[in-house]
Records
---
Amino acid sequence: MRRHDFRGGVHPPGQKHLSAERAIELLPMPPRLYLPLQQHAGGPALPIVTVGQRVGKGELLAQAQGAASAPLHAPTSGTIIAIGEFTAPHPSGLPLPTITLEADGAERWIEREPLPDPFSLSPAQVAAQVGAAGIVGMGGANFPSAVKLDKARQAGVHTLVINGAECEPYMSCDDRLMRERATDIVDGVAIMLHAVQAPRALIAIEDNKPEAIQAMRDACRSDTRIEVLNLPSRYPAGSAKQLIQWLTGLETPAGGRGTDTGLLVHNVGTAYAVHRALRDGQPLISRIVTVSGGAVAEPRNLEAPLGALAADLLAYCGGVGDDCVRLLMGGPMMGHPLPSAETPVIKGTNGILALTIAEVSEHTPSPCIRCGHCVEACPMGLLPVEMANSARREDWSGIQALGLSDCMACGSCAYRCPSHIALPQYFAYARDQLAEQRREEAKAQQIRQLIQQRQARLARAEQAKAEAAAQRQAAKKQRAIAAVEDDD
Amino acid sequence: MNSNPLAGAPHAHDGDSVSRLMGAVLLALAPATLYGIVLFGWPALNLLTVTVLACLLGEAGCLWLAGRSVRLGVLDGSALLTGVLLALSLPPWAPWWIGAIGGGFAIVVGKQVFGGTGQNVFNPAMLARVMLLVSFPVEMTTWLEPRPWLSGSAPSFLEGLQITFVRLAATDGVTGATILGHLRTELSLSQPIEQILPGHYQPALAAVGWTGGSLGETSAILILLGGLWLMWRRAITWQIPVTMLGTVLVLASSFYWVNPERYADPILHLVSGSLMLGAFFIATDPATSPITPWGQAAFGIGCGAFVYIIRTWGGYPEGVAFAVVLMNAATPLIDHYLRPRIYGRTWRGQPRPIRKKPHET
């Protein structure tokens, strides 16, 4: 198979050694879990439990709403003590509707029926089970996996790509998962192949994880449909678009989906979750989280229940030093700062990082010198410097023409900017402004439509009135003629 | 816990900064600069000091007038670099006011008038060089043979001060033309090249830098080494130096092949004058060169072509400053037209057609 390079990219120091050699540990069940109803792309889940209700481990707490949504299950047994607002894992620190579950420590499972062999089910049934288990993209995209599986099958995808690149620095949760649970992942891949009816799967792993590559090769030796491939260790090799390009030379058309190229990309964590759901009947209630960074006493990979607070994970890892200047959810390239450590782990949380000043390199921005490093680094072939200039001038049509919609906010440009200009923030600002414009336009359009409808209604009423008058007039005439005739 | 709650991704950086980039360029220039000082003695050092001071003063004054941080602006090293580059392109025994006027002009008119760092259209050092060459042709074309430090012919410290700050005393008989200048004069007298060059030009000496010329432009090899290091350090990309030198090489080889009596050989072009300095240190100035790889290649080709054209048919023996300034003017145009293709789009910016590859390995 030919390899095709992707454009640009950067080589941030991996920092994986901090946590990659520690085996996955189970986080002791925290006393309380905070489960936001919106942990996925699409509509929020609808709670079906009430405050005070006792629930078993794995019990459905909230059901999916709408076409793209995901249900939520109880990560442990206990009592629902609140359904209200709680700090969301978002830099705004705004609250989101959240179910609070107090653990009873019994880990009492709900009753589970014996599972049929997934390969005896129809592909649509497999996807439905994946959806019912609440599985979303575990790499951070959070898109409901069942929807992706169904759409891919309908599109006639020929290759399932399993993304084990893990190109974000510090992150090692996928690395550990592949090293320790390779057989389960490969089983999940086989089930997903059945669900999309694709003939083959490629597992792509960055070449800085030789142990994971070896473990995965050993695990899929017996299945000739599945192949393990090395990726270059260059950020963002793990972005679906760049991954597809590297593997096939094809590009996802602008505004299109990966499946337009005949490929479907899923994260290794998702494959593992599919295995757990269809073999063990365990919905998505926990995930592997990398806890790392220079300010963490003992960086580790933890299997944490959803809803555990970042503070719980950090405390288990020996706590955070006073030298922590930034607390992140996700990796340093695309992760976002947490408003506080009292923020819950959600389905897409791959890491909690506590970074020191030396690791984040805070600088005051200086004037742009037009060095072109950002252009060189951009994997999408954009001109970040010109886009930032447009944003500064508030030239929204200009920034759209420069390809704002193609920017995936990978941060490569700002990583290399010698002037320390926060380029992705300019783009986020522009996106926000454009969205606001679109909302305003939609509103104006709606108002115009209402006015037109009202005018049409009034015109119709007027016309009806006129017609009625005319009819009356005609009837009168008729009567008068009839009267005259009668007189004759 | 978060010192800056508004900080956005990415939270990592490769550690480079404007001042580090400028520092790297200065470091890469150090061998050629030191060599120039050794070769031409105290007056060269005096001129370098005056030029750099004029640049720093100009920068500080303008920033102060504009109400911006003088400390940050001066510390970023760009004014220092402009001063060094300008000094390196001056005749080594030029009087102090050449450096002072040139340095002040470079920063005030060449850079700050446009809005300061990153806003200037023209390379400040080259703009100043062009201005000096047009305004003070005698001072700007008074060359001398190498008189290395500690050799008998070198001026003492006091003589050096006198040369720079009073007048160019008693230098008759030691001045000589640069190779390119000599070649131009003789060619205009219809002398064939094989009679002009012997005795005046030895390729090896010219490459090492044992020849008359500007303060820091004589040693092509030292400049080349510094430039290669900059490339390796990723302070500059390969596009501009390679295309600029390549274009000169191709043009010079073609004409030399057609008529070696009339056109100088390509090696002479590569090792003499400011071509090396221009290709690695001047044309690569980030603010005034294109931002895209293709644009940089086009810019380098343009610079190389102009250098050769001016050297061969123009009114001046050397053309790097003019070539770079001309191409600087074309940079916005190049940036407008030569852009990378966006992922998932055609060159025209439309989404690429959906194309499914049949299943194969």
Note: The two ends of chain A are 104 Å apart (CA to CA).
---
Amino acid sequence: MDFLLNLLPYVVNGISLGLLFALIALGFMLIVGVMETINLAHGSLFALGMYVALFVITPQFGWFPELQQAYLALPLGARYVIALALAPVFVGTFGMLLELAMRRTYGKDPLYGLLLTFGAALVIEELIRLIWGSTEKQLPLPDAISGAVRLGDLVYSNYRFYASAFAALMIALLWLFLEKTPYGAIIKAGAHDSEMVRALGIDLTRLRLFVFALGVALAAIAGVIMAPIWGIRPQVGVDAVVPAFLIIVLGGVGSLWGAVLAGLMVGLVVGLTGAFASAWSLLSMYLLFIAVVTFRARGLFGRKSVLDA
Amino acid sequence: MSAIDNERNEPPIDTSRRRILKVSALALATAGAYGVAPFFGPWKHNHAWSQAGQKKPLVLGLTMDASGQYAASGMDERLGAMLAIKEINAKGGVLGRPIEAIHMDSETTPATGSRVAERLITRNEAAFLIGALHSGVANAISQVAQKYGCIFLNTNSSSPTEAGKDCHRVKFVWDGNGTNFALAIVKNAMAVNGKNWVLLTNDYVWGHQTSKATRTIVEANGGKIVEELMVPQNTRDFSSYLLKIQQIKPNVVAAAIGGDDIKALRQQVVQVKLNKSPAWINNQQDWPDVYGLGPDAIFGVFGTNWYYRLDLPGVKEFVAAYQTTYPGVQIRVPGNTYYNGYMATRELLRAVERAGTTNNIKVIKELEALKVSARDRMQDFDAYMNPATHQLQQTIYMATYNDAPAEKDDIFRILAKLPPKDVEDPEAPTTCKLESYDATPSYEM
């Protein structure tokens, strides 16, 4: 019984971590699922989301000091909400530009898309370095979501609860959007059979642009949410893109619930090994991946390919 | 390069007419595509100096991380090395020769460190190699350097093994190591905070060796290591570690965590309000890893070998030179990693000047006999190179957050300053087996 009671905090922590991993992977999953393009710039766009939020919360308008002063007079909570809204819009727009560049790679060897997004990742990271420098930054948090709460003997971070709840909300909203709206139906149909969607008179080019922007905006939201936990630095995107890639393959490419379940599994495994076999905590997610993919090559919720029939 | 004893095993150069024609055609094509300037690139380095009647530049290979866990500190130490080079070039260089620096990113990865070292020595004809943060990378570079006899200055990598079992005749260690810092901090922390300790260890050579040194001192003084938690490199989420620490309830957590990992750890400790209790010690706190984190995150007691507000002669001028040379950098004042990069480079070039030659064996002997006054090093006590381990023995400072800062960047309060004799690593001389001079390839550039 004592063991179970001791274990409980780690399970809760693992679930919370899993929701955050799932949030990081959502945008990646959407782009891979619909466009069959692996967006290696996902991590850099995640980082860009962090920096845009930082700028919105603590702006440096060198030429307009009065404007800056007036804006900074707004409560931190209000600026945080503005950042959470503006970061995905800005990064999503940036993503649209990237999608325009990617169009020439559609229908060609997937390596072209990989190379292009890899190059974009490097460019974005260096742009961040040029604009914001390479030192560590911190995202100021409103009081309502910072601080800590004592539950029994243990102290938990309020922000963790907020971040996990926010991740769960984003997952639910994305599910509602994909399942309950006509736009979601078009996206899913586009993922299933793009030629048929085009034959029905739907502008596939615009659909791809929209999906890419949405996926990238989700990366930016994940960046804003993870910023207070991971810290803000130009190379932080690498920390996001690797687990995101692993989670979508583990969950089954293009599956929302697959990504969520895989995220939770990875969170639990990392959280539990962190406590009981700490040296294995990072390796554990790769071992889980190998174990699952060995027996189910298309991931947990991956659809059967025509080649498997 | 005129090799006294050519051990570099370079492949013979193919000088057949066909090959020369091919290479020339390729070079012309490149010039056509990109303008004439690229064609003169290698010529500028290898021949233009002789045509202009200048002496051949002395090339320093900078093996500093620009990416990975220690990217920030790698950039910082590079700035230090570059300022030392700039100052010496302004005085006419070394032996009348200008100094050139070539930097290659060692990526906080041992395999890259080896590759970069090999390339700098064999292709770029680097006379000396400078720079390292990650002890695994430092060890990898030094193995390549020893193979060629190329002197390598380990500027900032602090595993005790660097001047212990992984020491080499060509390698000189410029920073304090995990044992030095543990000797400076641990006994005092036990007296003040208690005897039950948890070790939080970065899972690679520096973390292991530093925690081992801490464990030895704790146990020798009647304390107990309740648990050692291994932290893989690039860990970004410390929540389960922090839960574990709360369950264990130790008196002290001794962290041997570095680079981006310690930044994430510090922020997450603050989020769960563990920064006040238990007591924290971080063996060594590199300046770029703490700069900009904010007062709450700079908790605990930690070691360093230099601070920009030490009240010593030359410090203000050193800080001013940094700020004048690098006005745009975000770290507005220099820290320990910059200082080590600067000092190592300066002392190497001075040693070459004193030796009157670039012959590596003669320069090694100069460095082995190195003594630097406290004034010259801007530290509280004189420093000296231990010829048996090739580690510079120097002042170690114990510091904590400064809650009464004189200015924005004044975030450290120095608690104690310890002379080199008090913190000397007792194990290093017994484990370090330097190669003989004869077994070290000799060269002159």
Note: The longest helix of chain B spans residues 71-90.
